[in-house]
């Protein structure tokens, strides 16, 4: 049933954007996850949980951590919301429609909560870090039992216990910048590919982005903790790791007592016996020559670099506070291509940023033509409450934004198609991930450059690296045939 109406201010430090902007590099502590207390270890025996995850890989990975904690408390996972005793929404704040979906879901589940008063309904993730969201849930969705923020995941056992026994909504959202908590349990959802956080937060404060406020300041995990986790994953037989951070190449900038940056970390991970290492996402501003030199060594460091550009026009980039110009971005791309001729570049682009003129948008198209990205995530600008650009007039009509997006996508699709066509007849290394969703006779996997390949083959190849000749390149995927003995010629 709905929780009683109370004054929640005593339970949490409300997210505060002003404070977030004034943060400085102090007080980051590396903490060890405490064992689940005795009285909470079996609290979930015979009960199940369902976590609905929205947004980026960081959130997916946080869900693995929350699931790991719940498993240690005796809960088991379920896909069926009617069966679940705990339903958590691990939310994304990057776009307003992602938030609307969650509010829609919370409304939809109200009858279930009325029917099953013992059901625990919780909201966590980036939305919980927003003051306006927390207030809206407090006032309009009183059937929610639990809200916790991105810095509070290690507190799940205590929060859940409190929610189980309290008559009030339990809210714990720390506005502080967050610590680094090591050794949290993880229920990894994939047995071949694993995510490894190397750092948290972001200090870039791009003017359109809510992340620096929801995820706190940049703080890096210590090298031996990251390397230890990657070694352990290698020992367990994982074939691929993806190093995660909002801005991975700012890694180590916050270390006060050592000069150890992302390039050093990659160079050390290169020596670990795991076939593939990826990273996401990088910021052009922090992409230094040392990193390019290390990536050019290849080996298990794959040739795929996701390098969000956002716009091809320097004035727009300045208004976005991206901290690089068009020319600087192109110079960086040039350096990468020279050092790594096989590099596959992908990007993110926003169209219709406030004040973007037709000419400025044309600069984005010309940059896309010049760089020739293999693929791009393209978005129409929409303001996020609490960010600087949300205060500016969103003066590009929606029709114009849509038309720009359409032109950009058409251009990018033609480039993607042409790039994939270059692979026709070539043999690529594929990590076989499973059966194709559309046809169980067909296996699917990814190249080192992260392109999806479908090809007929026996199921026992799942988990292996095999050679596949590309026979039918398409715009977003590749079709091929197995070439067991042949040498890999392309990436
Ligand atoms: S670099 Fe910019 S876009 Fe990326 S998370 Fe940080 S503020 Fe957001």
UniProtKB/TrEMBL annotation:
Its EC number is 2.8.4.3. Residues 188-418 form the Radical SAM core domain. SMART domains: Elp3 (SM00729). Residues 47-165 form the MTTase N-terminal domain. Belongs to the methylthiotransferase family. MiaB subfamily. SUPFAM superfamilies: Radical SAM enzymes. It is an enzyme of class 2 (transferase). It comes from the Bacteria. Monomer. [4Fe-4S] cluster 1 binds at residues 56, 92, 126. Residues 421-484 form the TRAM domain. Its main location: cytoplasm. This is tRNA-2-methylthio-N(6)-dimethylallyladenosine synthase. The lineage of its organism: Bacteria, Bacillati, Bacillota, Bacilli, Bacillales. InterPro entries: Elp3/MiaA/NifB-like_rSAM, Methylthiotransferase, Methylthiotransferase_CS, Methylthiotransferase_N, Methylthiotransferase_N_sf, MiaB_methiolase, rSAM, rSAM_horseshoe. [4Fe-4S] cluster 2 binds at residues 202, 206, 209. One of its GO terms (cellular component) is cytosol. It catalyses: N(6)-dimethylallyladenosine(37) in tRNA + (sulfur carrier)-SH + AH2 + 2 S-adenosyl-L-methionine = 2-methylsulfanyl-N(6)-dimethylallyladenosine(37) in tRNA + (sulfur carrier)-H + 5'-deoxyadenosine + L-methionine + A + S-adenosyl-L-homocysteine + 2 H(+). The keyword Signal does not apply. The keyword S-adenosyl-L-methionine applies. It is found in: Cytoplasm. Its cofactor is [4Fe-4S] cluster. Coiled coil: none annotated.
